[in-house]
Specification:
- The chain is 16% helix and 39% strand.
- 43% of the residues are buried.
- The protein has 302 residues and is of the alpha+beta class.
- The two termini are 22 Å apart.
């Protein structure tokens, strides 16, 4: 039960997947540019997949820089850490006209706004030094259709419909997600780690690409700028159980032509903290950072 409800998003789900929005037919019917007719369900599905990932059977790499802040329900945001996040998604078209993705994702924690990998983090709210728990999640399954993305039961991102927006020569694909679940780390059992009886995860995403790239039949994927914010209950490794507030995250990134385009300093942090992301063919067992941390903490507690 635990492992079926508390995976990522990507981040982060997912990263390229978690940035795919959902549009309604009535919103799309008013938008048409060239042959990009958003009233057509097949076109909308193609736009979502081509901006969010690919319309072909291929692997897409997306890199995000995620800055995490603490908000204690008063005062300004407090810089916490920066995560170098890599999303690798295997895409393929489906017979029904939709597109499927299998997501693998990981993130390495760094000193805020740097590529300095950290093993220990000093909490600026409590002053306590905490062991860092790297982020990892996948494989996650999702299906992209004309009106959004459907994720499997392990995802903490459940996209809600927002219209595809064409502004000038750019296509914007936004989405929003509000997700919550009973926290398996009960406050009475884990007073220092538990964020409360209910765990909350809100995410807002947008990806943007050029209309010309979407219309280009020679391209199976459009170049895309990706950006998201999230508001999430304290992760247990922060050690903020019983403290009011959540983490606020802001991330920006883009698809990579290949792993060769991954920033070298960021790659070094990922190779140190989550080397398995570079061997997804050997990654067959589901990985989820929250339940893995919980299992480690429970074993340590005895």
């Amino acid at each position: 039960m635990t492992s079926s409800i508390i995976s990522r998003r990507s981040a982060l789900a997912t990263a390229a997947l978690t940035a795919v929005g959902a549009a309604t037919a009535q919103d799309a019917s008013a938008q048409k540019i060239g042959t990009l007719d958003l009233a057509d369900p097949k076109t909308r599905a193609m736009v979502r997949a081509k901006i969010g990932g690919s319309i072909a059977e291929e692997t897409v790499y997306t890199f995000y820089r995620l800055h995490l802040y603490g908000y204690a329900n008063e005062g300004n945001l407090i810089p916490f850490v920066t995560m170098n996040n890599l999303n690798i998604t295997k895409w393929k078209p489906l017979p029904n006209g939709n597109y499927a993705g299998t997501v693998f994702e990981s993130g390495a924690y760094c000193k805020f706004d740097t590529d300095e990998s950290i093993d220990v983090w000093e909490n600026p709210i409590t002053g306590e030094k905490r062991d860092v728990w790297p982020f990892i999640g996948g494989p996650l399954k999702a299906e992209i259709g004309p009106d959004g993305a459907v994720t499997d039961e392990t995802a903490t991102v459940k996209p809600r419909a927002q219209r595809i927006d064409i502004i000038g020569d750019t296509v914007f694909v936004p989405s929003q997600s509000a997700f919550s679940f009973p926290n398996p780390m009960k406050p009475e059992q884990y007073p220092k780690e538990s964020a409360g009886p209910i765990y909350y995860w809100d995410s807002h995403f947008v990806q943007a690409g050029k209309v010309a790239d979407v219309l280009n039949p020679k391209l199976t994927r459009a170049g895309a700028f990706s950006q998201f914010q999230n508001l999430v209950s304290w992760h247990p490794w922060f050690g903020l159980g019983g403290k009011p507030g959540r983490t606020y995250g802001k991330a920006y990134g883009t698809k990579l032509k290949s792993l060769d385009d991954l920033p070298k300093a960021a790659r070094a942090t990922l190779e140190k903290q989550t080397p398995e992301i570079f061997n997804i063919d050997g990654w067959t067992k589901p990985r989820l950072d929250f339940p893995e941390y919980m299992a480690w903490r429970k074993a340590k507690q005895g």
